[in-house]
Amino acid sequence: MIDRLKQIMEYYKQNSTAFADQLGVPRSSISHLLSGRNKPSLDFILKLINTYPEVNLYWFLNGKGEFPSTTSDKQNNLSGCEFQESENTQNQLSISPTNTTKEIRQIMVLYTDGTFDTYHPGK
Questions:
Q1: CA–CA separation, 111 vs 41, rounded Å?
Q2: Where are the domains of the chain?
Q3: Phi then psi for 110, rounded to 5 degrees?
Q4: Superfamily assignment of 2-73 in CATH?
Q5: Quick one: DSSP state of residue 71?
Q6: How does DSSP assign 29-49, residue by residue?
Q7: Fewer Cβ atoms within 10 A, N terminus or C terminus of the chain?
Q8: In 10 A of CB 25, how many CB atoms?
């Protein structure tokens, strides 16, 4: 992960100070990450992918995938997620439950002293 962090800094042509300032993290945290003393926190990772949208989260965490990710890759990934309405969907939306009446089966009254009463209407 250290190598990937260095690769991101080289890609954006930033030293550790500028990189930390851009992310809004303490400069020492970048130093600790690069030295291997600390591992990136969830907060750091979220700031990284929000600040630099070209950083692929899966690539950063696992080293698999591409960096920088292209916008066409993101569009291709999202194109399969679009909602397509069909006739079945419209039919399903118009179906309503046949039994809409509800009956009270049991009423419980809880008292502050820890006791309770149970009422069964219709019995």
A1: 47
A2: 2-73
A3: -100, 130
A4: lambda repressor-like DNA-binding domains (1.10.260.40)
A5: H
A6: HHHHHHHTSSPPPHHHHHHHH
A7: C
A8: 19
